[in-house]
DNA sequence: CAGCATCCAAAAGGATACTG
DNA sequence: CAGTATCCTTTTGGATGCTG
């Protein structure tokens, strides 16, 4: 592989808001893209957001993330479970009950997603207006 | 447990930053999804990241965001321009030169994306290992 | 209730060729 | 250099029907 820089995330200028420098090497891009592709997904972001308040049952998630189909919810949850972002707990009752909950890793992801949620909420109108203006 | 008291209050996350518990109504979900779908896109995140250091020419961006095709770069830049996140500056020289740069809005987006970048960089290994373990 | 399997339509995206 | 246009494959995702 490429020369290992020992740590992938070497841009720990936590003190600086704007990480102005070369945080991402060209090689890191691919690795990041890999993660961002699964985590930056629309449904993923919304499902993680829904679970941020605590564990939820399958149908509860589907109700909160309005518009998600059964298929996409299942696929998203399976991937999140495989990635170690949520846990799946089955209660062998009748009818069955399954709870999903963020893991520690999932909580940190949620934390990293909060600014993006906020940004989207705060700038949605501006973007839609820009978009409309550009379309003219 | 999470008190699901009457209305949304605030929720103390593990990382101790107080996070507003979903100020997102079910209706807002759709609106947010709309923004997140375009902004939470894989290439968008990487292109905005590349531009965070300052303006770049078309080909410079393509070189930095390795793996992106000409088509996707063009489409991504057009959308970002329409959304008011980047500016496009054409220098009518021969050969032509085009610079792309983040707008103020783009800078704030970049700020909101930093935690996600850092999370992805810091947890990539953990995720890949989880995924491999789950796959076995 | 909580899924899985299947089919099919739509969208995303890469490769290639061409242009000002 | 910085795109545009086209083709065509891959992926995404909804709808539906069926299980434990």
From TrEMBL, chains A, B:
The keyword Transport does not apply. Keywords: DNA-binding, Transcription, Transcription regulation. Residues 29-128 form the HTH hxlR-type domain. The keyword ATP-binding does not apply. Gene3D superfamilies: Winged helix-like DNA-binding domain superfamily/Winged helix DNA-binding domain. It comes from Acidisarcina polymorpha. InterPro entries: HTH_HxlR, WH-like_DNA-bd_sf, WH_DNA-bd_sf. GO terms for molecular function: DNA binding. This is Transcriptional regulator, HxlR family.
